[in-house]
Design goal:
The complex is a heterodimer.
Chain A (H helix, E strand, L loop, with lengths): L5 H9 L3 H12 L2 H18 L8 H20 L32 H10 L2 H11 L5 H8 L3 H20 L12
Helix pairs in contact in A: 2-3, 2-4, 3-4, 4-7, 5-8, 6-8, 7-8
Chain B lengths: L8 H8 L5 H13 L1 H19 L8 H10 L15 H21 L7 E2 L8 H12 L8 E2 L3 H7 L19 E10 L2 E10 L2 E9 L5 E8 L2 E8 L2 E7 L3 H13 L2
Parallel strand pairs in B: 1-6
Antiparallel strand pairs in B: 2-3, 3-4, 4-5, 5-8, 6-7, 7-8
Helix pairs in contact in B: 1-3, 2-3
The chains are: A mainly alpha, B alpha+beta.
Chain lengths: 180, 259
C-alpha cells in the first residue's frame, strides 16, 4: 500500500511508535512541554522523509529523527548545555568491576533509581534508555547515537555501574560523585 | 589459552543484553559457571534491568501530543460516547483512529503466515472489549489480580472464579515471561486474562471456551495495538500488545504449540 494521505501514513506507520518518540524526547528534554514540541516536530519530519526510509525497523529510524530534532532545538534554545564533556571516555576501558561481595540490588528504592538516571550524563542516559526501555540492539543504538559499537558498550557499562553504586549506597546519605 | 577462563566483562554485559551469537553465548555461560566476579556482574545487570522495567520511567505520549499532530495533519476525530471518564478524550480519538486504521491496514497486513484479516465489515464484537480491557489493564495496579511467574500458582487461582480451567503456560525461556492473571469481562462472558511480559512490553492473552470450530490466527490493529485472534481446542484466544506484529506472532505460535 502506498497511500499518499499523510494522516493514513501517520496512523499506520508512526502512531505505533508515538510513545517511543515521546519517551525519548521526554528523557532528552527533561520536561513534558519541550518533549511534546520535539516529538511533534520529529513525527512531522519523519512523515516527510518516510519515502526515503529503506531500513527494516521504523522505531530506531524515528528515534534518530527525534534525537536530531532535539539537538537542533537545543542548539537554538539552550546552547550552553551542549558543552557536556565526558572525561572518562578518553581514559581507556571502563571499569566493569562488580564486587561479588556487594549487596544485591533487590530492595533498591525505585525513586532513587529514577533520580539517578536523570542525573546521568545525557550521553550515558541515552544509551541506557534506548537499550532498557526501547529494547534496541547495540547496532541500532550505535546508528541512532552515531557512535561506534564499542562506545555503545562502554557507555552502557558506565551508566550501569553508576546506577549500581547509587542503589547500593545506604539510603539517607547517598554519596554522589561529582557528576551526581 | 582456554577462552572460557578469561574474564571478559564486556562480553558478560552483551550476554545479559542478549546481543551475542550462540557460540559466544555458550562461551560466556561456561565462564560464568566458574567465575564469581563475572556471575555477580551478570546478576547485578539483570537485577538493574528488572528494576528499570518495574519502575515508571517510561513516559507515554500524552493525548495532547496526538491531538496536535492530528490537527496538523487535518484529521478530525468524530465525537463519540465516552468509555471511561479518566481517558475520555483519548479513548474516543483512539476509537476513531481504530476505525479508520482498520480500512487503511487491510492491504498492508497480509503477512507471510497466511494470516487473514478483519475487514471493516467483519469486526468481531469481542474486539472492542479486548482493546478496552487491555488499555485498562495497563493503568496502575490493574495488570494482574494474581501476580506470579509460576504457572502452577496462576492456574489454580482461577479455580472457582471461572466456569472453565484455562491452560496456563510460561514462555520465559523464549522471552515471554508469565507475570500473572486476571478476570475480565468480554461481552457478558467472564474470561481469563493472562499477562505476559516481553522486555518492557506487556501482552494480554484473553481466553474463554468457544463453540466455534478451530480458526487460524487473524491479525488486526486497533488504536496502535497489535491483536491476534484464533480458536483452538474449543477455546477462543485473543492476544493483544504494543510489541511488533512479528513479536506477537512469535508469542502466538508458542501458545498454539502448547494448547
Amino acid at each position: 500500500m502506498s497511500s499518499r494521505d499523510p494522516g493514513a501514513r501517520f496512523r499506520s506507520l508512526l502512531l505505533p511508535h508515538l510513545d517511543a518518540a515521546y519517551n525519548y524526547a521526554r528523557w532528552l528534554a527533561g520536561n513534558d512541554h519541550d518533549a511534546q514540541d520535539v516529538a511533534h516536530d520529529a513525527v512531522l519530519r519523519a512523515l516527510e522523509y518516510l519515502d526515503g526510509f529503506k531500513g527494516e525497523r521504523i522505531r530506531p529510524w524515528l528515534l534518530t529523527i527525534v534525537r536530531n530534532t532535539f539537538y537542533t532545538w537545543l542548539k537554538k534554545q539552550r546552547p550552553v548545555e551542549l558543552v557536556e564533556s565526558f572525561e572518562e571516555e578518553t581514559h581507556g576501558a571502563p571499569d566493569y568491576g562488580s564486587d561479588p561481595q556487594a549487596a544485591a540490588l533487590r530492595n533498591a528504592d525505585l525513586r532513587a533509581l529514577a533520580a539517578a538516571i536523570e542525573k546521568l550524563p545525557r550521553e550515558y542516559r541515552e544509551a541506557l534508555l534506548l537499550r532498557e526501555l526501547e529494547d534496541l540492539s547495540y547496532q541500532e543504538i550505535a546508528v541512532v547515537l552515531e557512535i561506534p559499537l564499542g562506545t555503545v558498550m562502554s557507555r552502557l557499562a558506565r551508566a550501569r555501574k553508576r546506577l549500581e553504586e547509587v542503589l547500593r549506597a545506604p539510603a539517607p546519605e547517598r554519596k554522589y560523585g561529582s557528576r551526581f | 589459552m582456554d577462552r572460557a577462563s578469561e574474564c571478559r566483562p564486556e562480553l558478560v554485559q552483551a550476554y545479559a543484553d542478549a546481543q551475542l551469537s550462540v557460540t559466544q553465548s555458550l562461551e560466556v555461560e561456561r565462564h560464568l559457571e566458574s567465575c564469581a566476579r563475572c556471575s555477580a556482574l551478570y546478576a547485578n545487570q539483570k537485577a538493574l534491568s528488572k528494576l528499570i522495567g518495574q519502575s515508571s520511567l517510561y513516559h507515554r505520549a500524552p493525548a495532547a501530543l496526538l491531538d496536535r499532530i492530528e490537527a496538523e495533519l487535518g484529521i478530525e476525530a468524530p465525537p463519540s460516547a465516552p468509555i471511561r471518564a479518566a481517558r475520555r478524550s483519548r479513548e474516543s480519538l483512539w476509537r476513531a483512529i481504530g476505525v479508520a486504521a482498520s480500512a487503511a491496514f487491510l492491504i498492508v497486513l497480509i503477512g507471510a503466515f497466511g494470516i487473514r484479516l478483519y475487514g471493516p465489515g467483519a469486526e468481531d464484537p469481542a474486539m472492542h472489549d479486548i482493546v478496552a480491557n487491555h488499555i485498562r489493564s495497563l493503568m496502575p495496579n490493574h495488570l494482574a489480580d494474581v501476580a506470579s511467574s509460576d504457572q502452577h500458582t496462576v492456574k489454580p487461582w482461577f479455580n472457582g472464579k471461572l466456569n472453565f480451567s484455562p491452560p496456563v503456560r510460561d514462555f520465559a525461556q523464549q522471552g515471554f515471561a508469565l507475570t500473572g492473571g486476571r478476570i475480565d469481562v468480554v461481552g457478558d462472558q467472564a474470561v481469563a486474562a493472562l499477562v505476559y511480559r516481553h522486555n518492557k512490553h506487556y501482552i494480554n492473552l484473553f481466553l474463554w471456551p468457544s463453540s466455534r470450530g478451530a480458526a487460524p490466527p487473524r491479525t488486526a490493529i486497533r488504536r496502535g495495538y497489535n491483536i491476534i485472534h484464533w480458536t483452538q481446542s474449543g477455546t477462543d484466544y485473543w492476544a493483544i500488545s504494543d510489541i511488533s506484529r512479528d513479536g506477537l506472532e512469535t508469542f502466538v505460535s508458542l501458545c498454539r504449540a502448547s494448547p
